């Protein structure tokens, strides 16, 4: 049964609906948000891009690490009106996708809102006067949907090539014991480089994954951005 707070968007039923998309973005408090390949090369300058295991399935998920404690979040350092530095799963807020009903000929997911989200009932009317923020949220949903399979295939290739390794990450404090960040995985960049030297097939695989793998590796420099939160 669908959550009663989730409503499929309808341009008649929701003619008077207002949404403040900036407020919705500012409300994001997640420690990790899933990301897709198409956003790696913009987010790599702002957040660590890591792999984590799904608690239910054990599958690896590409994610942006946004925070290490409840008090502070790397999103707070960003101008959240700039789409290029905001993860798609934050840009889309408060919009969500809902799978079409079984038997529905429409294979595309439906766009909905969560009535409990921040920003609902504030800001501008979304249908009477569509804003750039509304268009951005819709585009973010579409990009996430289109990027899901490609990102899953990328992770599958990383696993097959044994390119994933545990990250040894520790936050050090001046006056108390350090905090070990558990459950984070990254790319073994040495193994990625060695792919080119194996055979032609491995060289092709290198070309498939290198751009994204190096982006993930580079992004780990953003771990230092947590320093102001722990000093």
Describe this structure in words.
Helix content is about 30%, strand content about 20%. It is globular and about 60 Å long. The chain contains 7 helices and 12 strands. Strands 1-7-6 form a 3-stranded antiparallel beta sheet, covered by helices on one side. The protein has a 3-stranded antiparallel beta sheet with strand order 3-5-4. The mean pLDDT is about 85. Strand 10 (about 170) and strand 11 (about 180) form a beta hairpin. With about 230 residues, the chain is α+β, with helices and mostly antiparallel strands.
Q: What percentage of residues falls in helices of 4 or more residues?
A: 25-40%
Radius of gyration, CA atoms, in whole angstroms: 20 Å
Q: How many angstroms separate the termini?
A: 46 Å
**What does the average pLDDT come to?**
87
SSE string:
EEHEHEEHEEEHEEEEHHH
- Total helical elements: 7
Shape: globular
Strand content: 15-25%
Structural class: alpha+beta
The biggest beta sheet is recorded as: 3 strands, antiparallel
Low-confidence stretches: none
Strand order of the largest sheet: 1-7-6
Oligomer: single chain
Give the topology.
Layout lengths: L5 E3 L9 E2 L1 H6 L5 E3 L5 H4 L5 E5 L6 E6 L22 H4 L3 E4 L11 E5 L9 E2 L6 H29 L3 E3 L2 E3 L7 E3 L3 E3 L1 H7 L4 H20 L7 H4 L1
Antiparallel strand pairs: 1-7, 2-8, 3-5, 4-5, 6-7, 9-12, 10-11
Helix pairs in contact: 5-6
In short:
By secondary structure, this protein is of the alpha+beta class. Helix content is 32%, strand content 18%.
What brief labels describe this structure?
231 residues; alpha+beta; 3-stranded antiparallel beta sheet; 7 helices; 32% helix; 18% strand
């Amino acid at each position: 049964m669908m959550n009663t707070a989730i409503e499929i968007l309808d341009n008649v039923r929701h003619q008077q609906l207002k949404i403040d998309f900036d407020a919705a973005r500012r409300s994001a408090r997640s420690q990790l948000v899933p990301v897709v390949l198409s956003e790696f090369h913009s987010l790599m300058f702002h957040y660590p891009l890591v792999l984590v295991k799904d608690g239910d399935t054990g599958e690896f998920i590409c994610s942006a690490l946004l925070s290490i404690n409840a008090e502070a979040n790397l999103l707070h350092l960003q101008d959240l009106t700039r789409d290029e530095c905001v993860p798609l799963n934050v840009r889309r807020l408060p919009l969500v996708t809902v799978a079409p009903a079984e038997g529905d000929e429409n294979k595309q997911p439906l766009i909905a809102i969560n009535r409990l989200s921040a920003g609902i009932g504030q800001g501008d009317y979304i249908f009477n006067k569509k804003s750039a923020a509304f268009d951005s949220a819709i585009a973010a949903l579409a990009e996430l949907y289109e990027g899901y399979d490609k990102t899953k295939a990328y992770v599958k290739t990383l696993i097959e090539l044994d390119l994933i390794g545990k990250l040894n990450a520790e936050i050090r404090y001046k006056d108390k014991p350090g905090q070990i960040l558990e459950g984070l995985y990254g790319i073994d960049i040495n193994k990625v480089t060695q792919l080119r030297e194996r055979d032609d097939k491995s060289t092709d695989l290198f070309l498939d994954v290198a751009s994204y793998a190096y982006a993930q590796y580079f992004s780990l420099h953003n771990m230092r951005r947590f320093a102001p939160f722990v000093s």
